[in-house]
């Protein structure tokens, strides 16, 4: 290598993030209006655009002035985590909507019962976490202890647990429900459960345990 630094970061190149198309079935949800989904999708597109803008700025940012109190590099790095997680969490959220609701089947159901004692207790905890959180509730598989956990994240880049994999994601920011429910978050969470795509959530889980 002769001391040369190579690779995508050294060259300043990056692959732009592209917004995934909005699945048409998300415009036919029960209790969550097409307008809410369309406005929500616009916010997701905004995170895609900002992720690309930040990564482009990171190509030429002044690294010599890096400082943990304030520096352009610090600000870009912090906001990269916010924007990028905003993209990923919304893709997971949209991806586990559009189903018939009900309960999961097979291995995911068994893992929920194994982790929480009963499906009913898990569901109650997930819904309560949705009322307690300021941003997200994420049913995640912990790669270290082998259990499922309902985690709460107050922001895209706050409350995300290391070495865990999302299985089911609920957005509880006001933009996810205010058009339909005003401040009635509880009713929105009930509507979310009526539209869960458990097949998608189960596929995420099976990809981890196979």
From TrEMBL:
Gene3D superfamilies: Iron/manganese superoxide dismutase, C-terminal domain (3.55.40.20). One of its GO terms (molecular function) is metal ion binding. Residues 104-203 form the Manganese/iron superoxide dismutase C-terminal domain. It comes from the Bacteria. Pfam families: Sod_Fe_C. Keywords: Metal-binding, Oxidoreductase. This is superoxide dismutase. The lineage of its organism: Bacteria, Bacillati, Bacillota, Clostridia, Eubacteriales. Its EC number is 1.15.1.1. Mn(2+) binds at residues 40, 90, 171, 175.
């Amino acid at each position: 290598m002769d001391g040369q630094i190579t690779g995508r970061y050294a060259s300043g190149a990056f692959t732009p993030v592209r917004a995934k198309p909005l699945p048409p079935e998300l415009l036919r949800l029960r209790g969550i209006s097409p307008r809410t989904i369309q406005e929500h999708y616009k916010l997701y597109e905004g995170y895609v655009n900002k992720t690309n803008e930040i990564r482009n700025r990171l190509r030429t940012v002044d690294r010599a002035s890096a400082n943990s109190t304030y520096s352009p590099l610090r600000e870009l790095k912090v906001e990269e985590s916010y924007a990028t997680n905003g993209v990923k969490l919304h893709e997971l959220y949209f991806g586990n909507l559009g189903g018939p609701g009900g309960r999961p089947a097979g291995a995911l159901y068994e893992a929920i019962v194994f982790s929480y004692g009963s499906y009913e207790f898990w569901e109650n905890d997930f819904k309560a976490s949705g009322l307690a959180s300021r941003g997200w509730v994420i049913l995640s598989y912990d790669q270290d202890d082998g259990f499922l956990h309902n985690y709460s994240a107050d922001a895209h880049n706050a409350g995300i647990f290391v070495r865990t994999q999302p299985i089911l994601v609920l957005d509880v920011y006001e933009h996810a429900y205010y058009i339909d429910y005003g401040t009635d978050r509880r009713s929105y969470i009930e509507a979310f459960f009526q539209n869960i795509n458990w097949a998608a959530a189960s596929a995420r889980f099976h990809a981890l345990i196979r």
